[in-house]
Design goal:
Layout (H helix, E strand, L loop, with lengths): L8 E6 L3 H14 L3 E6 L2 H10 L4 E4 L8 H11 L5 E5 L4 H10 L3 E4 L6 H35 L3 E6 L4 E4 L1 H7 L3 H4 L4 H4 L7 H12 L3 E7 L5 E10 L2 E8 L1 H19 L3 E6 L4 E4 L1 H7 L3 H4 L4 H5 L5 H20 L9 E9 L2 E13 L4 E9 L3 H23 L5 H16 L3 E8 L2 E8 L10 E3 L5 H7 L3 E3 L11 H6 L3 E9 L2 E10 L9 H40 L3 E6 L4 E4 L1 H7 L3 H4 L12 H12 L4 E9 L5 E12 L5 E10 L1 H20 L5 H14 L5 E8 L4 E7 L1 H6 L12 H8 L3 E3 L17 E6 L4 E7 L7 H44 L1 H17 L5 H23 L8 E4 H9 L8 E4 L5 E4 L1 H19 L4 E6 L5 E6 L27 H11 L3 E6 L5 E6 L3
Parallel strand pairs: 1-2, 1-3, 3-4, 4-5, 33-35
Antiparallel strand pairs: 6-7, 6-10, 8-9, 9-10, 11-12, 11-15, 13-14, 14-15, 16-17, 16-21, 17-18, 19-20, 20-21, 22-23, 22-26, 24-25, 25-26, 27-28, 27-31, 29-30, 30-31, 32-34, 35-36, 36-38, 37-38
Length: 1039
Amino acid sequence: MAGISDTPIRVLYVNTDEDFTELVQTKLCQADADIEFIHATNARTAVETVSVERIDCVVTAYSLADETGIDLTESIRQQDEDLPIVLFTGQGSEEVASESTRAGITDYITIRTDRDNFELLVHRIQTLVQAARERRAAERINNRFQRTLERTADAIYAVDTEWRIEYMNEQMADRVGRDPETVVGTVLWEEFPTITGTKLEEQYRTAMETGEPISFEQYLEEPFDYWVKVRAFPDEDGLTVFSREITDERERQQELERNEAILQKIHDVVFVINEDGRIQFANSAAARVLERSRESLEEERLSGIVSSRVSDSDAREFKSAVTETLQEIDGDGGVTGLYDFDLQLGLRVGTKRRVFDVRLTPFQSTMNRQVLVVARDVTEQSQARNQLKRERDALRELQTVMADSELSTDDRLTELLEVGCQTTGLEIGIISKIEGDKYTVRSVHTPDGSIETGDRFDLESTYCEVVVAQDSVCAFSDAISAGKSSHPAYQQFELESYIGVPLVVDGNRYGTLNFSSPTTRESEFGTLERTFVELLAELVSSELSRDRSRTELEQTNQRLESLIEAAPLTIMEIDRDGEVLLWNRGAEQMFGWSREEVVGEFNPIVPKEGQSEFKQHRQQALRGERIRGKEIQRQTKDGERLDLLLSVAPITEAGGEVTSIIAVLDDTTEQKRLENQLRALQETAQQLSVARSREEIGDIAVEAAVDVLGFDITGIWRHDDRENALVPITETTAARERFSESPRFTPGDSLAWEVFESREIHVCDDVETSSSVYNPNTQIKSEIYVPLGDHGLISTGSTVGQRYSETEVDLFRILGATVEAALARADREEELRRQNERLNEFASVVAHDLRNPLTIASGFLEVVKETDDPTHYEKIESAHSRIERLIDDLLTLARGETLIEDTEQINLTDIATEAWGYVDTSQATLTVCDQAPVVAGNAGRLTQLFENLFRNAVEHGGTDVTITVGGLDDREGFYVEDDGQGISPERREDVFEHGVTSNKGGTGFGLSIVADIARAHGWTVSVAEGTDGGARFVFETDS
């Protein structure tokens, strides 16, 4: 029978022949000692036996007293279609064989003389029984699997080796929002592209490649907010995936583990048996009593295991109790747990006989009817009763403490320690936190307060050193007996008894839970105390974990609240109706309403014309959509309109419903204002680019300073090269009204000149602190100077002290840069204009003035050739002389009024006398007065100036003219006058123009050269009537 089962085969043999029956029994039992032989003499008895007893195989003769074996088979088949039935008879025929087949006989053996019929019968019985048992086992497994699939709440789908979806149950379809029929046949990665590249894909491919099942947990973020456990099972056909939500399981896991620990640690023997009497569950106590492993007990018949350990009467009583208990399930309509059956049994445990109180409780599982068997050793009944009471009391106390939701973490831990002290009978309870070799008291319960929370010790000075080292429970009731007399904890604290367990929080070692007392304990710590302390440690670990989570959450919330409050932005939360729930400090500062004024009220910052837009934004967010960087306008409490950037995000609850909206507003008003200012400055630059004069440029610039930058007091100065001074060009109206005249700045007299020379911008927020102020009594309190390169300076100021922002300074610098560029362009255009005018003058001279003497010379040369009259050579020579003079004047004029940079102090007496010698003065007379001044100028150019004046006087005043040079009495300068015929008043304005002359032989450039040289020195020149009626040329050198 080896290989079939350890359970004996119960064979029911049906025959009226008692002698042959005895022979069959003898043969069968000799062939297989595991066969239990049962005899029935007629069909009726046989049918009854099959209905009430476990029969593995029926062997029947053909002829029976009341009917045939065929009839018997048909009756049995009405009850059991799978029970093996063998027709064992000497009445063999084809008719009998045919009837046997139709009736459902499993095998048909005819008795023959040429073989060992009984050996064949035994073999057939073994084979049929084995096949039947294997078939029933397979059916049980298959049925159990089918029921599991039908009843499972898991989301399930399967793919083939090409990742095509072959199956998807309704749970999975509901989860992903798809129709199972539409997804079957599609490729997983194409149908659900969002899982590509995720942990799911990585795990699935690993399972498919290795052929090994995998199981992992994954958190699904908002809006789901729950955990799932994924199990993937690969096979040759592909991969089957089970996905189950485990959020509640995670929370229940610790509770289940605690219950499992209690169940395995309690002294009671616990079995669960099915209606066949087979063990479905056995706890550690049961395995220990029966001296077997828990695994080896499962599916064994409990009656068979204990039969050799109990008396026959106890065995029958237990069997009857099980039957009666199962019947109660049917009797109470399927309601379980309303009936208990109690009995007392004696059981041999090891070499001793122990007495157990046994309670049988029926219950209906999803699979079948079952009985819970709980047996308690009552040999030491009093001790067991006391232990039970203590256990129940302790658990009740723990339940009360854990159920009190109003307790803080510290209070809950303290009360747990108090329950622990009561249960263990020890005085001191401590929860310790251990870091390295340091032991810190996290919570404590003591009768005298000698130890307080926060006290620190060296780990090696405590008994917990062993707990940490061994990572297990450590307990002793007598320190001396346990060899602890030299331990620091005994030497210092005189602790006689101790029990401690490791504490693990969130998977990491935290410290210990320990109880101790300065007195010895009457008895050793038993399983009750150890189990209780371990259970208590789990509760403490759970509480510490929750406290850590709460603390981290509170810290996160505090940081978030601090961030919201410190943010310079408006951060606000509104509900679905638009009422304000959150209003941070940035919102108060930006809009002017306090938190107390706003919270609970409708959002006040939305103007009337913006209500529709606000409603649209709110509805958009309530649909779960986000808004990022939307430009809007809102109003402050004072009615000011602000340009803002709006960002909005919905806030959802656990169920995914949007409950409120968080909005962040960034004030871009200043940015918008800056953009407008920059745009206006760009337009100003365009205006400056077409301005023609310094004055026009100045007017445009100061107007922009007022209108664009808001700088009411602004002025522009140009650098006068001749005077080496900063001369005002223009100023704003406010500056003109406040200061009647803008000052001139010269080297070393002001901060303005320092800025011009350094070419660096200067910002002075407090003028009174500056040592370089031009006017110490000025009304200006703060100012900005921006140099305009070589062209001058632009400045703005305020009569009210203010600190200029970087933006204001930068904008004013930009304005200065555009003004500098405009002045440079204007200077270039002015120089170009003068060059063009001079070019035109040259063209005029070449076209007219030079052509006339050339024509004269050419004409007289023709006359000479024709007449050979030498008197005409004088005419030709005169024309050539005129041409030479015109060329000299043109070269002088070419230098024009180019600014003279290098000057020296020149005595006019000397320079006039020198120039007199260069002119054919005939009988003219030069007089230089004693008061002739010393001037700053260029000697060569001044010599040319006097030459032209002297030549002009001789040519127009006569050969005996008298010319006088002297200084001016009322102002800086000098004069040159003659006593000739003078210049009429109507011609005095034109005499300095190029080509103007009253002398027939003159070039018309002399006086224009004089004017150019004067302007090159920065002087002004004018002509008036002389003292003696001639012409008087006046040069003012301080203009």
